[in-house]
Each structure stands twice: as C-alpha cells, then as structure tokens.
Amino acid sequence: MDVKHLKIQANWFRILLPEGILIPSSTLITGPGGSGKPLIGNFFAAEWLRQGGSVVFMSLQYPDYSFVKSGMLATSDLDIDDYNDQTVFIELDAGLDSIHKPEGLHIRANLVKPDIWDEALTQAAEMVPDEGPGILVFGSALNLLLFSPTYESAILEKMIATLKDTSIFSYLFSVSNSVKANVIAKIEAVVDNLLMMRREKGSKELTVRVLRAMGVQFSDAEIKAPLPQETLSELKEIADASRKRVIPLISKL
After folding, report:
1. N or C: which end of the chain has fewer CB within 10 A?
2. What is the pLDDT of residue 101?
3. Inter-axis angle of helices 229-250 and 37-50, nearest 10
C-alpha cells in the first residue's frame, strides 16, 4: 500500500489528481457558501480511513456527528461506524469556557480560543491510532471562528500556524470565502494543496478545480462534481440553521 500518496478512487477525481496528494500535507477547499465543500472533503476522509489512517472531524457547521455520518455515506458509500476506532469528532461549543471531558470518541470544545484549539487536537491525537497514512484533521466551515471580535486575529494566526506544520497531522480544511475574503486569502496562501469550488449563478451544477498541489501532477481543468443533490440540499439547510445559531454566540466572544 502506498501511504506516501492519498489517491481518491472516484474517476472524476483521478482526472484532477491522478497521483493523489502527498502525505503529509495541508489541503484547503475554498469557495462560496453552499458550494459543497465539505462533501468534496468527504472523498478525502473516506479514502484516508480505507487506507488505515485515522480522522479527526471538526465539522463546525454540523450540530452533531450524525450529519457527518450521513454525508459520508451519501458521497463516499462509507459507513463511518465501521471505523469507530479510527475517528474522533470535535464539536464546536462556543458556550463553554474551555473543553469538555471527552465522552467516548466525542469532544466538545470552544475552538474559538487558540489554546483550546491546541488542547482539543492534542486530546484527539491521543484517542486514535497513528497508523497507515497517519492522522488527518478534517475541519469544515472554519471561517465561522473568525466572527469573534476578540479572537479573530489570534485564531487566524493559529489556523495558519497549524496548516504550516504537518509534523503530527495532515490537514484538510474547508472555508467559505463569501465573507472575509481578504482574511481567507491568507489561509489560502499557506496550504500545500488548494482546491476551489464554484456554482454557476442560478444553476445547481457545482464544479471543482485544483489551483495548487504540492509535488504531484494535476489538471487545472474545472470538473463537474457529481454530488447527490438531495444530500447537498439537506446538509445545506442544516448548515444554514447551525450558522444562524453559532455565529451570534461567537460574535459575543
């Protein structure tokens, strides 16, 4: 098994990244809100688990683990329950002062605070094996953390420092650039691999394009992403509702 590269088996993905991505590395999926970024990330996470690695999920736009599970099953035909010993879910709880004691493979933490971000990842790393391709941190909707007037600069610096250091983890983040595009550009600038999602105005069609990939050949063609529309609509509705709940809490910090 080649654990120096993560190769996505979906045919349309192999057009974009025939060699996959290098391991370890940092990857960012960027694009406007509602363009399916976390669902694209599911393809990476599913392949990572199948290769024997562990995944730490930081899906900030979903209220609980069940939405990650349903999204993974719909996009990648992978039942995450079959990989319980390889997965941890970190839930954003902006109402906590710090971090809640882990319950099973579940951590609740106020990830807006940079020191809590570090503590949560340290705890997660101790809860899963570091085998195969290693440990992947898959964080989606991380732009939500930037709505804190107190911690915006500090958590941005923490994200950038995290993505620059792949000595312990590989990273896969997704962010919306619909708001704070200038800030998001600073994150885009430091990652090893950069993918962009796009949706034509008035269209349901989503496309993905590789803008940068470290040390591998890639196509810069814009490819239609065959995501299940029902799943995309359902998860978008859930994510929108979660953002309306979470952003006001973060804006008070």
Report:
1. N
2. 79
3. 100
In a domain, 8, yes or no: no
* Residue 16 within a domain: no
Tens-digit pLDDT profile for residues 170-219: 999 999 888 888 999 999 999 999 999 987 776 677 889 999 999 999 99
Domain span including residue 90: 21-250
SS3 annotation, 58-93: EECCCCCHHHHHHHHHHHHCCCHHHHHHHEEEEEEC
4 in a structural domain? no
The domain that contains 227 carries what CATH number?
A: 3.40.50.300
Whether the predicted model's global pTM rises above the 0.85 cut: yes
CB 138 within 8 A of CB 54: no
pLDDT in tens, 207-253: 899 999 999 999 989 998 877 777 667 766 776 776 777 788 888 88
* DSSP string for residues in 125-180: HHHS---TT-EEEEEE-GGGGGG-TTTHHHHHHHHHHHHH--SS-EEEEEEE-SS-
Burial class, 168, CB count within 10 angstroms (exposed 0-12 / middle 13-18 / buried 19+): middle
How many structural domains is the chain composed of? Answer: 1
Q: Which amino acid is at 82?
A: D
pLDDT tens, 112-129? 999 999 999 999 999 999
For 24-60, the DSSP string reads: S-EEEEEESTTS-HHHHHHHHHHHHHHTT-EEEEEET
In a domain, 57, yes or no: yes
